[in-house]
């Protein structure tokens, strides 16, 4: 878990990398001991990725991308301690909820996930992309522009369906596409540095002012109690998304944030330091880590990149993931469940230590902090693929992000487009190949119809509901007058 603190809080180093680093250490350990280390490092890295996202606007892990919205805005207002402490407790609570779902709901949730084909995954990706409308309700057209830019960027590289290289301009470094991590660091981190450089009065100030970490415990508990249904709803949604193979904690966090913003009566407050905007994504991404274990254990299908490594580790331990593991290795499964619960309790003190270690940034002048941001951005961008070319990608996206924000074009939809572009295109292409070019299978399934209705609701739901209510009120008024 302490390794998870270090890796998660270092921008560009993902929870997947932390698991990959720790698996060789567990080679000669008993299976439960090795899996315990994997569980501890993965849950901790997902939380601590929110620390640099809150303090520096640089997500520590891809799953922390949403924290650059409301958590960072709270930090700018001097509420960094409150945001991080709230984040920590909600992560532990949602982790317990996710593990409980793992224990009791594995078979039914995995059964639903197993029925998803390319047609359902296509609409799931479209539904996720439509959340960009919810992320930019004040200027939906600019949000759509940003999302389309992300989709265009996702087409760079080798086509997964045909193996044809596209838009790589003869550069071998682009044949594998644009790496998500340096693009994200550039958009959110380098662009923030450029904004500070062009604001001389701002660069000379303190990085983030505020009270000492951790923050106001009483207010934090009041906020959690007041938003208890939000914590539960986001945790269940995160578990459900995490149980879908290939979705992962980053998509779960964006889904939860977008859904909560759409359901809220205070949509305008999201992105300004709104407490529900902090709770929703951090509850979803921690629960999604537990949810991803559901298909991995029950069917041997990885829910995300972390559980893909877990399956490899289990094979290394001579274990066979799948339905039989619950009868052949009953004690091991019970041990995994117990360790998962214990890790959520240990997350609170260890996460607190991680916050305190990183809190020294608060006391430094902003010009020094921005220098540190550039250093960590370069290290994080280069480390993920060990390729210096990613530093150039980071720089380009930093410049692009600066000019986009200068023209009030949101960055979050672009990130969502980059994440979901491959999922949407791949499942559309393979689905059309399976149906001999027919679009009918994309519309004749109950799950597809449900997801289509969700997309329609996100774009036109409020107007539709308003028209229905007005029509019902007019009809009721007419009946009342006739009776009178």
Summarize the structure.
With 484 residues, this protein is mainly alpha-helical. The protein is 72% helix and 1% strand.
Any overview of this molecule?
With 484 residues, the protein is mainly α. It folds into 2 domains: 2-444, no CATH class; 457-484. It has 22 helices and 2 strands. It has helices at 2-9, 15-22, 31-48, 50-56, 70-76, 80-114, 118-135, 140-154, 180-197, 200-203, 217-226, 228-242, 248-263, 275-291, 293-299, 305-316, 325-328, 330-358, 366-385, 389-406, 412-434, 446-483; strands at 157-158, 165-166. The protein has a two-stranded antiparallel ribbon. β1 (157-158) and β2 form a beta hairpin. α2 packs parallel to α16 (305-316), α6 (80-114) crosses α12 and α6 packs parallel to α15 (293-299). The relative contact order is 0.18.
Instruction: Tell me the number of strands.
Output: 2
Which residue ranges are poorly predicted, with pLDDT under 50 across at least 5 consecutive positions? 203-207, 209-215
The domain count comes to 2
Rg result: 23 Å
Strand order of the largest sheet: 1-2
Order of helices and strands: HHHHHHHHEEHHHHHHHHHHHHHH
N- and C-termini, Cα separation: 71 Å
**What proportion of the residues is helical, as a percent range?**
over 70%
In percent terms, what proportion of residues is strand? under 5%
Largest sheet: 2 strands, antiparallel
- What form results from the Cα inertia axes? globular
Rounded mean pLDDT score: 77
| Number of H- or I-type helical stretches | 22
What would you call the structural class? mainly alpha
């Amino acid at each position: 878990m302490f390794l998870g603190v270090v890796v998660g809080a270092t921008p560009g180093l993902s929870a997947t990398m932390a698991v990959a680093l720790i698996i060789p250490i567990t080679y000669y350990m008993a299976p439960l001991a090795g899996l315990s280390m994997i569980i501890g490092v993965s849950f901790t890295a997902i939380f601590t990725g929110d620390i640099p996202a809150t303090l520096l606007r640089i997500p520590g892990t891809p799953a922390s991308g949403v924290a650059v919205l409301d958590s960072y805005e709270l930090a700018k207002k001097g509420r960094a301690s409150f945001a991080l402490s709230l984040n920590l407790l909600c992560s532990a609570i949602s982790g317990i909820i996710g593990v409980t779902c793992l224990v009791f709901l594995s078979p039914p949730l995995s059964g639903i996930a197993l029925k998803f084909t390319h047609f359902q995954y296509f609409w799931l990706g479209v539904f996720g992309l439509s959340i960009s409308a919810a992320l930019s309700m004040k200027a939906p057209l600019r949000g759509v522009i940003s999302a389309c830019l992300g989709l265009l960027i996702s087409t760079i590289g080798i086509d997964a369906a045909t193996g044809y290289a596209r838009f790589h301009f003869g550069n071998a470094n682009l044949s594998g596409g644009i790496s998500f991590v340096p693009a994200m660091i550039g958009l959110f981190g380098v662009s923030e540095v450029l904004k500070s450089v062009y604001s001389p009065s701002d660069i000379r100030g303190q990085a983030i002012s505020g009270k000492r970490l951790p923050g106001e415990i009483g207010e934090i508990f009041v906020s959690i109690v007041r938003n208890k249904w939000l914590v539960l709803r986001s945790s269940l949604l995160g578990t459900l998304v995490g149980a879908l193979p290939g979705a992962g904690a980053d998509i779960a966090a964006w889904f939860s944030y977008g859904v909560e913003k759409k359901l809220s009566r205070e949509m305008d407050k999201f992105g300004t330091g709104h407490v529900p905007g902090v709770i929703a994504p951090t509850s979803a991404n921690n629960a999604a880590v537990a949810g991803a274990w559901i298909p991995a254990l029950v069917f041997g299908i990885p829910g995300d990149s972390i559980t893909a490594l877990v399956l490899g580790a289990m094979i290394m331990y001579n274990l066979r993931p799948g339905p039989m593991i619950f009868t052949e290795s009953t004690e091991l499964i019970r041990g995994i469940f117990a360790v998962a619960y214990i890790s959520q309790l240990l997350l609170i003190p260890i996460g607190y230590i991680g916050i305190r270690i990183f809190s020294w940034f608060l006391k430094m002048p902003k010009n020094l902090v921005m220098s540190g941001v550039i250093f960590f951005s370069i290290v994080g961008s280069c480390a993920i693929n060990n390729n210096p070319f990613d530093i150039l990608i980071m720089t380009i996206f930093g410049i692009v992000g600066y000019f986009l924000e200068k023209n009030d074009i949101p960055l979050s939809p672009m990130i969502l487009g980059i994440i979901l572009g491959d999922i949407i295109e791949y499942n559309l292409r393979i689905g059309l190949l399976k149906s001999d070019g027919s679009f009918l299978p994309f519309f004749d399934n109950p799950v597809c119809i449900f997801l289509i209705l969700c997309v329609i609701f996100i774009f036109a739901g409020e107007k539709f509901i308003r028209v229905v209510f007005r029509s019902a009120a007019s009809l009721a008024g007419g009946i009342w007058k006739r009776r009178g």
